[in-house]
Write a structure and sequence with these properties.
The complex is a heterotrimer of chains A (286), B (296) and C (452).
Chain A lengths: L1 H26 L6 H4 L14 H6 L4 E2 L5 E2 L5 H35 L5 H13 L2 H14 L6 H25 L5 H6 L4 H12 L1 H17 L2 H6 L8 H4 L10 H23 L13
Antiparallel strand pairs in A: 1-2
Helix pairs in contact in A: 4-7, 4-10, 5-7, 7-10, 10-13
Chain B lengths: L1 H8 L2 H31 L1 E4 L5 E4 L3 H8 L1 H33 L5 H8 L1 H4 L2 H12 L5 H8 L14 H25 L4 H9 L4 H30 L2 H7 L10 H11 L3 H30 L1
Antiparallel strand pairs in B: 1-2
Chain C lengths: L1 H18 L24 E5 L4 H15 L3 E5 L4 H10 L6 E4 L1 H9 L3 E2 L7 H6 L3 H6 L1 E2 L2 E2 L2 E14 H6 L11 H13 L17 H11 L19 H14 L12 H9 L5 E5 L2 H4 L12 E3 L9 E10 L5 H15 L8 H10 L6 H4 L2 H10 L3 H12 L5 H4 L4 H17 L4 H19 L3
Parallel strand pairs in C: 1-2, 1-3
Antiparallel strand pairs in C: 3-10, 4-10, 5-6, 7-8, 7-9, 7-10
Helix pairs in contact in C: 9-10, 9-19, 16-17, 19-20
The chains are: A mainly alpha (286), B mainly alpha (296), C alpha+beta (452).
C-alpha cells in the first residue's frame, strides 16, 4: 500500500509541475516592472514584487509604499468589459451547447441507423475549415446583418465551434455506458422517456465535462473575437488583453489581466468537476 | 399516452434526424455565405486599388499556389507541427488522466488547476510560451545560469522552434484530452478491476486489458480533434514567433493570413485555404479509415 | 416689376445665406472655437492602435464634454492595418483612424479615405507644418492626413554604462555604420559577447526598415521617390549594407533569436541593458531613461551626427474614412479631425502638445517644436541635457524613403523583403542574388499595380 501512494504522489506532483511551471513563469511577471521583466539573466522569482499591475489593469492608480505612483492602464475599461462579456458569452454558449449536444451525442453513440457515419463526418467538416480562410467574408456578412460588434454575433459564431467539437467529444463517453435502454423499454419507458429518466442521470459525468469544455471554448475563443468584437462594447477578454504588447509594452499588465481571466474558469471547473466522481454502476440484472 | 405512441413509431433514423436537423441547419446557415464567397474568390482575381474590380481566372490561383515554394515549405512546417502536437498532447493527456484518476487529498482543487491551461486563449498560450522559451528572458536561460552555465538558451531557434511550439500547444490542449479520458475512466465498472486482480494482472496488464479498451475510441476522437486544431491554428504561432526565425515556423495558416489579410490577395489566399482544407479532411478521413472504423 | 422680382430674389438669397450659415455659397466653414463642435447627433467612430490609450481616452473625453461631442473611441488590438482594411472593405462604422504614410497611400488608392486636403482650413494647417514633413505626407498632390507624430526610427542608442565596461570613451562613438561594425569586434574581445542589438526583428517594419535606413544613411536609395523604380545596386550602398550584415551575422555577433522578435521583445531586450548599441526610436530616449522600463536609466544617449545620417523618418497621421455618410455627419467628422489633429477650440495645438509632453513624440507643427518651454522640458527626458541637441541634430538630418513608402505596394514589399532578408542571413545567400531579387520584385510590383 505504501508503494502505491508514493506512485500516486509522484504522478500528482508531475502533473502539477507540468501545469503550473509555465503558468508561474508568466504569472510572476504580474508582480514585476517592465525593467525587471527584461533583465538578463532572468530572475527566477520577483526580486521587488509589487501588486500595482492588478490595480492598474482594473483602472485604478496605485501608490507603492515608496511613494511611486503607477497610473491606471488605458485598456482598463476594455479589460473590465471583456471580463463581463466573456462571462455572459461563456454562460450562454455553455447552456445552449449542453442542451443541444447531449441528445445529439446520445443519438449517434447509442442508436444504429443508416447514414450515421456520413452525418457524423458532416459535423466534423464544419470545424475543419480554418477561420483565417473565411474571416473577411465572415466579417462582411456580419457587418451587413449588423451582428458585428455584438455579443449575439459572437454567440452564434462560438456555437459553430463548440457544438461540433463537444458533440464529437461526448460520443466516446456515451458509447461506454452500459446498454440500459432495452431494459427500460421492457419496463414500459418510451424511447424519449428512457433517455430522460435513465440515461441522463448516468451520463451526469459526461455532461459535466462537456459543460466545462464548452465554457472554456467560449472563454478562450480568440480568432473570431479579434475581428468581430475588437474595440467594441462587446469585446471579450481574449481580444481586450491582446493590446498590452505593442510600441509601449506593459507585460505586467498583460500578466495581471490573464491572472484575472483565469479565475472564473477555475471556479466553473471546480464546481463542475465534483460530478466527475466514481459511480457505482449497478448491474442491470441485480 | 398518445405522444408516447407517436414517438415509438418513428424509425431510429427519423428520431436521430429530429434531434440533429436543427443543428445542421444552424451550422450550414452560419458557414454557407463565407464559404461560398471563398469558393467564388478562389476562381477570381480581386483588386482593391485603383478601383475595386474582379476578373474570372479559372484555376490560375490554384496552380499558382502549387508552383509556389513557400506553399510547400509551409505545408511541411504545418504537418511537422501537427504530428508532434498530436503525439505530445495525447501522451501527456493520458498521463494526466491516469494520475488524476487516483484519489488523493485536494483532488478537487488539483483537478481544477490541471484544466487551467485550457482556459488560456490561443493568444495567451502563445505569449506565455514566448516568455518561457526566449533566450533572453526565458526559463531555460534562468536554469542554465542557476546551474552555473553562463549561456543563453533559446528554444525558439530555427532548429527547435517547431518543437517548442508543439510543447506549448500540448500544454494548452492536454487538459482537454485528460478530462474526457477521466470521464471515460469513471464509467469502467470496478468489477473488471477486481477480476483483473484475481487473474494476477499487474498495473500494466490492468491498463492494457481493462482501461485502454474503454479509452480507445476517445483517443481516436481526440487524435482527429488535436490534428484539426493544430492544422487550423494561427494566432498561437503568430504571436509567439511571427513565423520566424526567418520562415522556420511559417505554417500554412500564416501564409494564408499574409496573402489574404496583409496583401489583400483574396483569390490566391482562398485557393490556398482550400488546399489546407483538403489536407485537413484527408488526414481526418485517413485516421478514420485506419483507426476509427474499427471502433465505430 | 423687375425691381420687385430682383429684391425678392435678393431677400431669398440673403435668407438662404443666413440659414445655411454661409455654406450655400461655399464660404469656408469656420473650424475654430465653437465651430469645432458637432452639428448632428451622429457618432464619430475613432479607432486607434494600442499606444498610451489613457491619453487618447482623456483627449476624446475633453472634446465630448466641452464641445458636446459624440466621439466613440476604442482601441483596436492586434494587426491594426489589416483589421482597418477589413473594416474598410466591409464598410464598418469607422470615421477616424491612424496610419503610417505608406498605409495612408494604400488606403487612398483603395478609395477608402478622405484626404486632409478636403478640410476647409487646410491652408492654415499646411502653413504651420514643416515643409519636408508635409511633402512626405503628400500623395498624388494631396495632403493625406494630420500630424500624429514624427520621429527618427533607427537613431543609434548607446548604453553609456556598457560602453565604459567595454573600455571605450565617448569620443570613440562611431560616425558611420562601418565604424560601428568594426567597433563591435573590439567590444567582443573585451568580453561582451553580443554588443549590438540590430533592428532586425520580425515585424513588417523591423528588418525591412533596417535595410531601408541603412541604405539611405550610406547615401543610397532603394527606389526613386517619383517613379518608384528600383535604385539598388550590388556595388552601391545597398550592396554595402548587405555585405556588412553578412559579415557580422556569420561572425556570430548577433543572437539568432532577434530575427523572431516582435517589437515588444526588441524593446525589452534593449531595456535589459545587456547591449552596447541599438538603433531605436527617438521618442524612446524618454522611456529608456526611466527606471520603470530600463535597467540603465540615466545612461541611454544618442550617437551624434557626424556627417552620416542615422535611421529614417517614421511618422503617423490621423486619417478620415470615406464611408457613406450624410454631408453634415461628414462635416462633424472633419471638425473633430481638425480639433484632434490641429488646433482645439481654444486655438492651442492641444493634442500635439500633450503627446510631446507625455511621450516625446515630435510633431510636424513648427510652433510646438520651436516652443522654448517644450524644448526645456524635452531636455529633461534625456540622460544629459546636451543629448537633446545631439538628438535634434540627428533628427534634422534624417532621410525619408519616399520611393518605398509613398506607394500602394509598400506593405506587400515590406513583408516580402522581410522574408528575403531573413533568408539572406539564415541561408547565407549571396549579396548579388539578393540585390537583384529586390530590384526584380520592385519592378514586378510596379507593373502589377500600374505605378507610373
Amino acid at each position: 500500500m505504501a508503494k502505491k501512494s508514493i506512485v500516486t504522489w509522484i504522478a500528482v506532483i508531475l502533473v502539477l509541475l507540468w501545469t503550473l511551471v509555465p503558468l508561474y513563469w508568466f504569472a510572476k511577471m504580474a508582480f514585476q516592472t517592465p525593467a525587471e521583466i527584461s533583465v538578463f539573466p532572468p530572475h527566477l522569482y520577483p526580486h521587488q514584487p509589487t501588486i500595482s499591475g492588478f490595480f492598474n489593469v482594473l483602472g485604478y492608480p496605485y501608490t507603492s509604499r515608496s511613494g511611486e505612483v503607477f497610473i491606471a492602464a488605458g485598456q482598463a475599461g476594455q479589460v473590465k468589459m471583456g471580463l463581463l462579456n466573456s462571462l455572459i458569452l461563456a454562460s450562454i454558449v455553455t447552456c445552449i451547447t449542453t442542451v443541444v449536444v447531449v441528445p445529439l451525442a446520445y443519438t449517434f453513440a447509442r442508436l444504429e441507423f443508416q447514414h450515421k457515419n456520413k452525418l457524423l463526418f458532416a459535423i466534423l467538416l464544419s470545424v475543419a475549415l480554418p477561420p483565417i480562410s473565411i474571416m473577411i467574408p465572415f466579417y462582411i456578412l456580419f457587418v451587413k446583418i449588423e451582428l458585428a460588434g455584438t455579443l449575439l454575433g459572437l454567440v452564434l459564431v462560438t456555437l459553430t465551434i463548440t457544438i461540433p467539437f463537444v458533440a464529437w467529444m461526448l460520443l466516446g463517453f456515451f458509447r461506454n455506458l452500459p446498454p440500459v435502454e432495452r431494459l427500460a423499454r421492457i419496463d414500459g419507458f418510451s424511447r424519449f422517456g428512457a433517455f430522460v429518466k435513465i440515461v441522463i442521470p448516468m451520463a451526469k459525468v459526461g455532461i459535466a465535462v462537456g459543460a466545462i469544455i464548452s465554457f472554456l471554448f467560449a472563454w478562450n475563443e480568440y480568432t473570431f473575437a479579434q475581428i468581430l468584437v475588437n474595440g467594441t462594447p462587446a469585446t471579450t477578454i481574449p481580444a481586450s488583453i491582446s493590446g498590452f504588447l505593442f510600441q509601449h509594452p506593459e507585460p505586467e499588465h498583460l500578466a495581471a489581466s490573464i491572472i484575472f481571466s483565469l479565475i472564473p474558469p477555475f471556479i466553473v471547473a471546480y464546481l463542475l468537476q465534483k460530478h466527475i466522481a466514481k459511480m457505482n454502476i449497478v448491474e442491470p440484472l441485480g | 399516452m398518445r405522444f408516447r405512441q407517436k414517438v415509438r413509431e418513428l424509425s431510429t433514423f427519423q428520431f436521430a434526424l429530429l434531434l440533429t436537423l436543427p443543428v445542421f441547419i444552424f451550422l450550414i446557415a452560419v458557414i454557407i455565405y463565407p464559404l461560398g464567397y471563398a469558393v467564388w474568390a478562389s476562381f477570381h482575381r480581386i483588386i482593391f486599388f485603383g478601383g475595386y474590380r474582379t476578373s474570372f481566372v479559372g484555376f490560375e490561383n490554384y496552380s499558382a499556389v502549387l508552383k509556389s515554394p513557400a506553399f510547400w515549405h509551409s505545408l511541411r512546417v504545418s504537418l511537422r507541427f501537427t504530428a508532434e502536437s498530436v503525439v505530445l498532447t495525447l501522451l501527456i493527456g493520458l498521463g494526466i488522466a491516469l494520475a488524476l484518476a487516483r484519489s488523493f487529498p485536494g483532488k478537487g482543487v488539483i483537478r481544477s488547476l490541471a484544466i487551467l491551461p485550457w482556459a488560456f486563449s490561443r493568444y495567451g498560450v502563445g505569449i506565455t510560451f514566448k516568455y518561457l522559451w526566449r533566450g533572453h528572458a526565458g526559463l531555460p536561460t534562468a536554469l542554465a545560469y542557476l546551474f552555473g552555465m553562463e549561456t543563453r538558451v533559446s528554444v525558439l531557434n530555427h532548429q527547435t522552434v517547431i518543437e517548442g511550439l508543439a510543447i506549448g500547444n500540448a500544454w494548452n490542449l492536454a487538459p482537454l484530452v485528460a478530462f474526457f479520458l477521466l470521464a471515460n475512466m469513471e464509467t469502467i465498472p470496478s468489477r473488471l478491476y477486481d477480476l483483473a486482480e484475481i487473474d494476477h494482472l499487474g498495473p500494466f496488464g490492468k491498463f492494457f486489458y481493462v482501461t485502454l479498451p474503454y479509452l480507445r475510441y476517445t483517443l481516436f476522437v481526440f487524435t482527429v480533434i488535436v490534428a484539426v486544431l493544430s492544422l487550423k491554428v494561427f494566432d498561437y504561432i503568430f504571436v509567439q514567433t511571427g513565423g520566424g526565425p526567418g520562415v522556420a515556423s511559417a505554417t500554412l495558416t500564416y501564409q494564408i493570413y499574409k496573402e489574404s489579410f496583409q496583401h489583400l490577395n483574396l483569390g490566391y489566399g482562398a485557393a490556398m485555404s482550400f488546399y489546407l482544407l483538403g489536407v485537413i479532411l484527408a488526414i481526418a478521413f485517413t485516421l478514420y479509415g485506419v483507426w476509427g472504423r474499427k471502433e465505430l | 416689376m423687375y425691381m420687385k422680382k430682383a429684391s425678392m430674389l435678393i431677400v431669398m438669397v440673403a435668407c438662404l445665406f443666413l440659414i445655411s450659415g454661409g455654406q450655400v455659397f461655399g464660404v469656408p466653414e469656420s473650424f475654430e472655437g465653437e465651430g469645432l463642435a458637432p452639428e448632428t447627433n451622429e457618432s464619430v467612430y475613432f479607432r486607434g492602435w494600442q499606444y498610451r490609450t489613457h491619453i487618447v481616452n482623456d483627449n476624446v473625453n475633453r472634446y465630448n464634454t466641452e464641445l458636446n461631442g459624440n466621439v466613440d473611441y476604442a482601441t483596436i488590438t492586434g494587426d491594426y492595418p489589416s483589421i482597418m482594411e477589413t473594416q474598410f472593405i466591409a464598410k464598418a462604422p469607422l470615421d477616424i483612424l491612424y496610419g503610417n504614410p505608406s498605409q495612408a497611400c494604400r488606403y487612398y488608392d483603395g478609395g477608402w479615405i478622405l484626404p486632409a486636403e478636403s478640410l476647409p482650413n487646410i491652408e492654415k494647417i499646411k502653413a504651420d507644418m514643416y515643409p519636408h514633413i508635409r511633402d512626405a505626407w503628400t500623395y498624388k498632390g494631396k495632403l493625406l492626413g494630420l500630424s500624429y507624430f514624427v520621429t527618427t526610427r533607427g537613431v543609434l542608442h548607446v548604453n553609456l554604462q556598457k560602453l565604459s565596461e567595454a573600455g571605450l570613451a565617448e569620443a570613440e562613438l562611431p560616425a558611420t555604420w562601418d565604424d560601428l561594425y568594426d567597433q563591435l569586434y573590439r567590444i567582443r574581445d573585451k568580453g561582451i559577447k553580443y554588443p549590438f542589438l540590430p533592428h532586425w526583428f520580425a515585424e513588417w517594419y523591423g528588418i525591412s526598415w533596417a535595410f531601408f535606413f541603412e541604405t539611405l544613411n550610406r547615401g543610397g536609395r532603394v527606389a526613386d521617390p517619383e517613379t518608384h523604380k528600383p535604385l539598388v545596386t550590388v556595388d552601391g550602398p545597398a550592396g554595402d549594407t548587405l555585405r556588412a550584415w553578412k559579415k557580422v551575422w556569420n561572425d556570430g555577433l548577433i543572437p539568432e533569436e532577434v530575427l523572431s522578435y516582435l517589437e515588444p521583445d526588441f524593446l525589452e531586450a534593449w531595456g535589459s541593458g545587456e547591449y552596447v548599441y541599438s538603433p531605436q526610436q527617438m521618442y524612446d530616449f524618454k522611456k529608456f531613461n526611466e527606471p520603470r522600463y530600463s535597467r540603465f536609466a540615466g545612461y541611454c544617449s544618442p550617437v551624434p551626427y557626424r556627417g552620416q545620417s542615422w535611421g529614417l523618418i517614421d511618422s503617423a497621421v490621423y486619417l478620415m474614412s470615406n464611408r457613406p455618410r450624410g454631408k453634415d455627419h461628414t462635416r462633424d467628422v472633419m471638425a473633430f479631425a481638425s480639433w484632434y489633429g490641429y488646433r482645439d477650440h481654444e486655438g492651442e495645438l492641444f493634442v500635439g502638445q500633450r503627446w510631446i509632453e507625455d511621450s516625446m513624440l515630435f510633431t510636424a507643427y513648427k510652433e510646438i517644436m520651436e516652443n522654448p518651454d517644450v524644448q526645456a522640458m524635452m531636455k529633461k527626458f534625456f540622460a544629459r541635457p546636451q543629448d537633446y541637441e545631439t538628438a535634434l541634430e540627428v533628427y534634422a538630418n534624417t532621410p525619408y524613403p519616399k520611393g518605398v513608402f509613398n506607394v500602394v505596394w509598400a506593405p506587400e514589399f515590406n513583408s516580402w523583403i522581410k522574408e528575403t532578408l531573413q533568408k539572406f542571413l539564415m541561408e547565407d545567400k549571396p549579396v548579388d542574388e539578393t540585390i537583384n531579387a529586390i530590384g526584380d520584385k520592385i519592378n514586378e510590383l510596379n507593373s502589377l499595380y500600374g505605378v507610373s
